[in-house]
Amino acid sequence: MIKRGSLEYYADLLSKAKLNSDDLSKKKMLLYRAKILANVKRYQFVQKETGVPWQLIAAIHGLEASFRFGACFANGDPLNKVTTHVPKGRGPFLTWEASAIDELKRHHTDAIDHWTIPLCLQFAERWNGLGVLNKHPGFYSAYLWSFTNLYKGGKYVADGVWDAKAISKQVGVAAVLLDFKANNALEIPMT
Questions:
Q1: Contact of 39 with 97, CB cutoff 8 Å
Q2: Does the N-terminal peptide bond of residue 87 adopt cis geometry, omega within 30 degrees of 0?
Q3: Do 51 and 123 touch, CB atoms closer than 8 A?
């Protein structure tokens, strides 16, 4: 039996995951891809400074700050003020890049020398919190799996507030990575 949260767990789920193919999902994926590719140099700069794959950086940026570069990478708070949302007490920052580098280095990403897709998924789930993984075994995290066939609903609608009927409107990390893989723009290996 594969242990939930292990790299094997994420590799197994990834082998079963497919992007949603309905028209609305396809349009949303196109929109996300366009936003990411329009700013790829910024994501690649942060990758150079932290070692984190730029596609993962972009996916987290979309989820945490709705792709806004005037907001902190980790939570969408204003760059020019000390953060009030988790993580609290960071900043202020002069640039979005500075906020991203600060937060990623705080998570010791410099200690990771071989990023794989399963590791990206494990990192993203830990980044967002293990509430779904540990407390809701019948669900897959919207943060990872939204806009894939694995996501059937359920999400935290606020810090610590779970709603089993809520449906995420954001594209999950796995969906972003799968989309880039399908479009031959993913350099991150599986193993």
A1: no
A2: yes
A3: no
Would you say 43 and 61 are in contact if contact means Cβ atoms under 8 Å apart?
Answer: yes
User: How much is the pTM?
Assistant: 0.95
Tokens of 35: 């936003």
β-pairing, 155-158 with 161-163? Answer: antiparallel
Residue type, 133: L
Spatial distance between the Cα atoms of 10 and 24, rounded to a whole number of angstroms: 26
d(CA 117, CA 187) in angstroms, rounded, equals 10
For every one of its 191 residues, what pLDDT tens digit does the chain have, with 9 covering 90 and above? 899 999 999 999 999 999 999 999 999 999 999 999 999 999 999 999 999 999 999 999 999 999 999 999 999 999 999 999 989 999 999 999 999 999 999 999 988 999 999 999 999 999 999 999 999 989 999 999 999 999 999 999 987 899 999 999 999 999 999 999 998 877 777 77
CB atoms within 10 A of CB 48: 11
Distance of CA 149 to the CA centre of its chain: 17
Amino acid of residue 11: A
Residue with tokens 């407390």, as numbered in its chain? 135
Task: Could you list the beta-strand ranges (E) of 70-121.
Answer: none
Upstream peptide bond of 118 is cis (omega within 30 degrees of 0): no
